[in-house]
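The following block was generated as part of the benchmark described in Methods. Ligand: S-adenosyl-L-homocysteine.
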Amino acid sequence: MNVLAKRSWTRGSIDKNKGLVEHLQQYGVIKSKKVAEVMETIDRGLFVPNGTAAYVDSPMPIGYNATISAPHMHATCLELLKEHLQPGMHALDVGSGALLAHSHCSFHLSPSLLMKIQAWDVETDVEHGFMWFRELDQFALEPDELDQNQWKANMLRSFFADASFDMVGSFLCFPSRLLASSGILAGTGYLTACFAVMVGPQGHAVGVEHIPEIVASSIENIKKSAAADLWERGSLSVHLTDGRLGWPELAPYDAIHVGAAAPDLPQPLIQQLKPGGRMVIPVGKIFQELKVVDKKLDGSISVYTETAVRYVPLTSRTAQLQGD
Ligand code: SAH
């Protein structure tokens, strides 16, 4: 089955990156010049592993229940945070790396594969899901991993449940253990780089991530990007740490972005938010909502829900590597 026949992207192309930005503008996801500019400046192609689609996004409306850090999710978060990413400000990106399967792996579905997936009984037939993954040509899973992966299969299935024929989507939910075992681990640092460009050399953009390999590859990606000089100057940094604790050294932050779903609002992150600052954070387990947390000047907090989302969990390193 030729599910990848319609691949229409190439890596490292500025034009393609511009095309993606235009696409997101057309669909109303990018609303401001500021966000368009930064997404044009930071070439997404530098932040994805070889062979994955950097410049494609789903034309489905945002808020469909499988949004993760696909391009439109990045754009949404940048739009929500843009007033808090002014030159000279401090920004924190928690969970700054990405699992390959999470945000940067887009694909086209053939109608027949989609029908099979929608009819798939995950309870009795986990293995099939992984066959389809292999057909999608994105993953090299070991057969002995299969029985440990029921929950991921479930997420895959629920992701596909509302898929439409021409959809280009994004996967999540593969712990880095699997990626590491298949040799396709990739970190990003994409949003951290965008933040760094927005806050500029007088500001600080800090990424925190708890998987060492992801920190390392994020840094490599950043060094190849338009944010490289900010890295050299030290106004952009990525640290290996438990992001639930934030990064107190450069607090308080005008903007905090959390790229993984927390069970509830992490107090250390709220504490590290500056009065007048804003945090964007997915909260929940199976059902997750993207919360926008504003800290008022008097220190009180207001929270609203932007949209339904699905992210990988903000959890301990051990739990993540075990796929819990
Ligand atoms: N911000 C990325 C998304 C990353 S996926 C992007 O926009 O593409 C979520 C990331 O959160 C993963 O890299 C995962 O390793 C990380 N993560 C999960 N729990 C964490 C924790 N407690 N501390 C730091 N990073 C965490």
